[in-house]
User: What shape does this take?
Amino acid sequence: MLQKTTYLSKRYGDPNGHTLAAYEQDGGYQQAKRALQMERSALIDDMKAANIRGRGGAGFPMGVKWSFMPWPPKPERPHYLVINADEGEPGTFKDRTIMEKNPHSVVEGCIIGCFGIGAHAAYIYVRDELHLSKARLWGAIEEAKKKGYLGKKPFGIDYPVEVYVHTGAGAYICGEETSLLNSLEGKRGEPRLKPPFPAQAGAFGMPSTVNNLETIAIVPTALAMGGDNFSKLSGLHHLKDGGARLFGVSGHVNNPGVFECAVGLTLRELIFDLGGGVKGGELLAVIPGGSSCPILRAEEIVKAPDPKSPLHPYDGKSVLDVPLGVDTFRSLGTMLGTCCAIVLSDMADPVLAFHNLMQFYRHESCGQCTPCREGSAWLFRILDRIVHGEAEMEELDRLSEIASNIMGNTICAFGEGTAMPALGFLLKFRRELEEFVRTKGKAGTRRLAL
Amino acid sequence: MRYGPTEHAMTFALTEERERAFQEILSRYPNKMAATIPVLHLCQEQHGWVSDEICEYVAKRLDLSAAHVKGVATFYSLFNKEPVGKHQVWVCRTLPCALAGADNVLKHCEKRLGVHAGETTKDGKVTLRTAECLASCGTGPMMQVDRDYHENLTLAQVDEILDRLTR
Assistant: This one.
């Protein structure tokens, strides 16, 4: 279902679209003002009905997450809203567009979010490299403050809200929520054991909610439409996967970019209709939602004979025709992730792509848990040997063993994020890998770029 | 890193303007430790890299141990643990950029500058490094030069940028 929307991206083409004046032309900040006068329970119910599935990759329902916060807040245990804008998942470049081109939606979302979870302060954690994004967010915060939309009495209502931008310093792992909290507290960005979950003990040991930046940015839209109406925009409303979101496509397509559409878009529509089709050959494979999501081959067919499966309506069809949803893609054995697809044409060598990604995970493992620290490095070393024509065939099985031994044996999901794509490549490209090992790298196209 | 008492007086101090920024940073958080990363950035901006002396300075200003600050500084890849060139060039090498030709951009930079990734030119003007995904996947190949992103790069554009940096 290809249904373009412009709730977040309406002013993406306007050089002044990031300013308060532009944002207010479309009723900006009216929802924050309204929310601060609502009953908290009514706001939470509306957000639950909106079926906003977390846009950061895990796809957890946002309204439900808000409802986990202890209530009522105790004065000695202040609540915090933390926004995850540590965008660094390879293939993902959607949050950056919001920060640069529509930062006020984030600030307004933070006001509503703070009220919803009983917080008076929100920290937006932005990776340090994104200097323009940080400047635009700080600019938006300043503008909102001047207008009296933030501070001690936003809109004259007695509910103080402050929003701050906090920066990281170059660590992919800080996109993991507990690692992000440690980093926010001025520590090494090493993930924490859960429980306690952030809602019990998050930022500074206090009850906290961590939401992805796109998730919070769409909140004013959902509130303006009414949760249920917002959810019904989606082709997957029946699966509680509602609304509209940003889709990205990169790699071998003619028109890479970020597109806003109703949930329910298919990969075929993303790659061929929005992405302008495959560049330099035929479609070989696609990584659906950031590099941690197992890869799908173009010729794969959905097998879902069970009528209870969310995939059943697509039984027998191409995986490219399955709507991009949290539950549909989980059932496919991959993940929706951040909804930003990486496209590989048949001119690209999948073995080199595998090697490239494992280099990424080796570099970014925080080193706290042995299976991940050693495993990610070991995976890379073997792939490096394969790429240089030095590996034996039996080492392919060792890759599977190592990846399987990372799964489930680490504090955070980075372990799975490394192992799952590795197992995906091993499953889907076994023939190509064997061929590469046998011919000492002479098989295959031996390149990634066209 | 020294763990005993400091033998000589500390010479590093924030400029007046950065001292104001320091105070403003402190006001954002419920405790001083949370300011560690932003303050390290502030110091690196002034000094170019995070030396042991900087770690001690930050520790002192934030009532932390120097070991904590050093632990933080060494965890994050954007804190320079040694002096670097006047300009920083990062070429993104991760898959979406690699599919768009990042490898050529990197090789070209290495050839032009006469250094490998991770090294600084002899005249101290440019440090060349590879970066992992910089959230610019739809506009690859790309590189970050100091604070700016340069996207959809052609080799001619890379030449222009490097000319400017090495002039």
Residues 54 and 102 of chain B are 35 Å apart (CA to CA). Chain B has a mean pLDDT of 95. Residues 36-47 of chain B form the longest helix (12 residues). Strands of chain B lie at 87-92, 126-131, 143-145, 148-150.
